[in-house]
Every structure is written in structure tokens, then in C-alpha cells.
Design brief:
With about 300 residues, the protein is α+β, with helices and mostly antiparallel strands. The protein has one domain. Helices cover about 25% and strands about 25% of the residues. It has 7 helices and 16 strands. Strands 1, 4, 9, 10 and 11 form a 5-stranded mixed beta sheet that branches. Strands 7-12-8-13-16 form a 5-stranded mixed beta sheet, with helices on one face. A two-stranded antiparallel sheet has the order 2-3. The termini are far apart.
């Protein structure tokens, strides 16, 4: 069989086929991040979120308006640039051997679609060591709440030595985490952008196809997330819920936090399922005997198991 003569038309057909393959797979991928994070558009190199520290409440209008001004404590999420590249060997094009590239393109599409998942689930455990809008780590014992020297330190974490689990309120317009999108994922090639691909072909004997997109992940309001390294028990979850429901703003008004998601990693899958699904839970008595009692948390939360978390 004579080798295929590689022409611009041939390369355009290959690009079109791979683009179709990419988009079909990309559009069909299911992701978890929309359940935990709000997508926020970005039109520059990054977004400022100063307003997170002072979201206004609603009050009876008596006298002048009570103006909530932006905090001097800045919080900014910078966009990052991401790519994924496939090299198509020129010899494979000549031989009409393109089957494996359809598979590789499908894999690239799957990973590109799940990239926000990767960003969010890298961000969440980093919350113990990464600052949010109030200058404290997102999960911290010393979040300042209050004004004019009357600040109190408020915690949204529980210490322990076990795998981390999280209680979240995802019902608000701004969820606990932010996926900031600057551009959509694009699938293109060197020649499609009007650039000379001759140098790449000459040096590497291959054609390049790949993805490009910009964005990043960051933290929303810490009051909507609680992290614990204590054992995942109904008692600890109930306590975390009670703490979150009591959070107030800087004016002392209750925020109305209502946690609805229990987020666990691989190691807490079974324990999490029991808490949200079981009708009864075992309880150890004073004489070390075990009895089963009604589970008050049955159906109280949606359980999300994230394989990317331990």
C-alpha cells in the first residue's frame, strides 16, 4: 500500500475528526465539582473577592441606609493556563494508522472535562494551610467575626487524627468553593492556528493537537464548610451541624447556614453511608453493651464520596 500523501486537506480532515471525537466525549462526562462549587466567570487575569467579607443582610429601613463597604482585606484568585497535548506521528498518518489516536483523544477529553474536579479536590484539603478572604486559613479555629474591637474567634474545623470529612452548605448562590473560568476548553492543532507546523514536523516528525484553557479554583465563604479529623460518627456530624447553624455575620445576625452535604473520601465511604442511610445506629452503653437506636440523621444530608480524597 502506497503511503498517504499528506496534504492540508488531509490534516484538516484529521483535525476535524479528532475535534468531533473530543467534543462528543467531553460533553458526556459527568463531574462532581458543580455540586460543591459555583462557577464564576472571569474577564481578566484574575478576580477580586473583597466582598466576601461583608455580604449585606436585610434590615428594616429606619433612617439612612446602613452601607456595607468593601473590606480592606483583599482576596484574589489568579487564573492559570492549562494544556494537554497529543503528538500524532507523521508515519502513522502516512500509513492510515489513526485508530489509537481516537482513544487518546477520548482520554484527553475525559481528563479535560474532569480538570475542574481535580482543581476543587486539590483545593479542599489545602484549606487547612491556605488563606481565604479573612486572612485566616479556610479551615481554621480563629476566623474573626465582629466589628470595632468586639471580634470573636470562630472555628470551622474539628481536630483529630483520622481521615478528613466535611459538612457543607451548598444551597446558597455562592457555594463553599469557587471554580473561576476565564476560557472554555479548546481543542486545536498547530496548523489550525495558522502557524507553520513545518518546524515541528521536521524536528519531531509529528503533528501536534491539544487543549488549552484558563481558570482556577478558590474559596468562597468559610461559614459554609466545616472540616473534621475526628471519627465520622453521628454525634460528631450532629455537633458540626449545630455549630454551622449558629454562625453569625459581623453584625451578630445569624447567617441561616443549613448544611446539606456530607463529603467524604474513600476511607470514610462506609461510615458516611451508615450515617445518612441507616435507620438505626449502634450505641455503646455504660456497661460496654451495644444497642441500636434511631438514627436522627437519616436522610438529613446528601452523601458525596470523592475518590480523589483519602
Amino acid at each position: 500500500m502506497d503511503p498517504i500523501l499528506i496534504t492540508p486537506e488531509i490534516l484538516s480532515a484529521i483535525r476535524g475528526g479528532l475535534q468531533t471525537q473530543f467534543q462528543d466525549v467531553f460533553d458526556g462526562v459527568e463531574t462532581m465539582w458543580p455540586e460543591l462549587a459555583t462557577e464564576v466567570p472571569s474577564t481578566t487575569g484574575g478576580n477580586n473577592y473583597d466582598w466576601l467579607s461583608d455580604i449585606p443582610g436585610i434590615r428594616e429601613w429606619i433612617g439612612d441606609r446602613h452601607i456595607r463597604r468593601l473590606s480592606e482585606q483583599g482576596y484574589r484568585i489568579e487564573n492559570k493556563l492549562f494544556e494537554g497535548t497529543i503528538g500524532v506521528k507523521r508515519t502513522h498518518v502516512e500509513d492510515g494508522n489513526m485508530g489509537s489516536y481516537n482513544v487518546r483523544t477520548s482520554q484527553l477529553a475525559d481528563r479535560a472535562a474532569k480538570h475542574p474536579d481535580k482543581l476543587i479536590f486539590q483545593l479542599i484539603p489545602a484549606g487547612f494551610t491556605t488563606r481565604c478572604f479573612d486572612g485566616q486559613n479556610f479551615f481554621d479555629h480563629e476566623h474573626p467575626v465582629g466589628r470595632d474591637g468586639k471580634e470573636a474567634e470562630v472555628s470551622n474545623k474539628q481536630d483529630g487524627t483520622g481521615p478528613t470529612w466535611y459538612l457543607l452548605d451548598t444551597s446558597a448562590p455562592l457555594k463553599p468553593f469557587i471554580y473561576q473560568k476565564r476560557t472554555n476548553v479548546e481543542f486545536t492543532s498547530v496548523d489550525a492556528e495558522g502557524n507553520a507546523s513545518a518546524n515541528v514536523v521536521f524536528m519531531k516528525d509529528e503533528y501536534l493537537f491539544g487543549t488549552r484553557h484558563r481558570g482556577n479554583a478558590g474559596f468562597g465563604m468559610w461559614q459554609l464548610a466545616y472540616a473534621s479529623n475526628a471519627p465520622l460518627t453521628a454525634e460528631n456530624v450532629a455537633r458540626a451541624r449545630e455549630i454551622m447553624e449558629g454562625y453569625v455575620d459581623n453584625e451578630g445576625e445569624e447567617l441561616g447556614v443549613s448544611p446539606n452535604v456530607l463529603l467524604v473520601g474513600r476511607s470514610n465511604r462506609v461510615a458516611g453511608s451508615k450515617i445518612v442511610d441507616a435507620k438505626e445506629l449502634p450505641v455503646v452503653q455504660a456497661d460496654d453493651s451495644i444497642v441500636k437506636e434511631h438514627n436522627p440523621l437519616q436522610g438529613a444530608f446528601t452523601l458525596l464520596v470523592a475518590p480523589r480524597l483519602k
